[in-house]
Amino acid sequence: MKALIAMSGGVDSSVAAKIMADRGYECIGATMRLYDKGDDGLDIECDGNCRTCCSETDAADARAVAGKLDMPFYTLNYKEEFRDKVINKFIDCYEHGITPNPCIDCNRYLKFDILLNKAKELGCDKVVTGHYARITREQDGKYVLKKAEDLSKDQSYVLYMLTQEQLKCIEVPLGEYNKTDTRLIAQESSFVNSDKPDSQDICFVPNGDYGAVIAGYTGKDYPEGDFVDKDGNVLGRHKGIINYTLGQRKGLGISADRPLYVINIDTAGNRVVLGDNEDLFTTRAVFTDINWISGTAPEEGRKLSAKSRYRQTEQPGEIHKLTEDMYEFIFEQPQRAVTPGQSLVIYDGDIVIGGGTIVRYDD
Prior knowledge:
Blueprint lengths: L1 E5 L4 H12 L3 E8 L22 H13 L4 E5 L1 H17 L6 H20 L4 E3 L4 E5 L5 E5 L16 H4 L2 E2 L7 H10 L21 H9 L6 E4 L5 E5 L22 E6 L4 E5 L5 E12 L10 E5 L7 E9 L2 E11 L6 E6 L2 E8 L5
Helix pairs in contact: 1-6, 3-4
């Protein structure tokens, strides 16, 4: 059996490579070159505090680990595809008051589409990643995506878009491990990156300043506009709608007698609506662009659980069909800042049912 290891340069994908080699797979290492510093026209510096992936250092670390494991290694240039499928969508979303999830788009369009096709070209049976999740095959032949054993590291949320055809070609060997064990394996293997911190920042937004990066890419000036309250009263001036997202409190620059939060972004009027924390709560999430992992939608009114952000614990509720390509999830308890553009992922216990992209929806 032959496996293409998607190596980010981090400890997780490095240990995944070792596990597959130890299982007797003929392994090939590959790093996707997606973004270079300066591609945004800003040449952003991070003062050593950025924790992203896909840098030159990351590629060098991946190559070193591949060499340690005596496996061939390739750097694959997918910068054009990444810009087309991920960065351009990211920009478009922020320009329309939507908060995207570029890491999910990268998995969907790059790692488990373009890279998977590359693996087939190379004669590989599997693509292997360092995600903390589990894939099993049931007696009926269907593949099932499950949470990782280590729930503190579980990444099943970012894999909800996988299909049956993709799942049969993917291995995620870290699903049975915890992070401490992974670090220990890397240290015992003398990997150059064994103590490397986990990446946290978006690779093309290394300092977290989304607005500056978007302006750098597009060359546009995003006009100031009004901060308003729910009644339309002007509270101050904002610095361009690309700089704000639902639930935001910091960086508003508004003096008020209580904390204010972004509760809506009116792109048509170039206004950012501010309100109280309680204004952010809702029991309803409407979502589209849906993937059901089994290939079949869950039955109407089924009791399941869902979460609308990666760092949440899923919450109970039930699912309802609105149209052929739109569903709603009704939470038992109100949830804060259910944000358009983010992914709503549906669970049945530790099994990922599927999910989709949250949209604005008015009755």
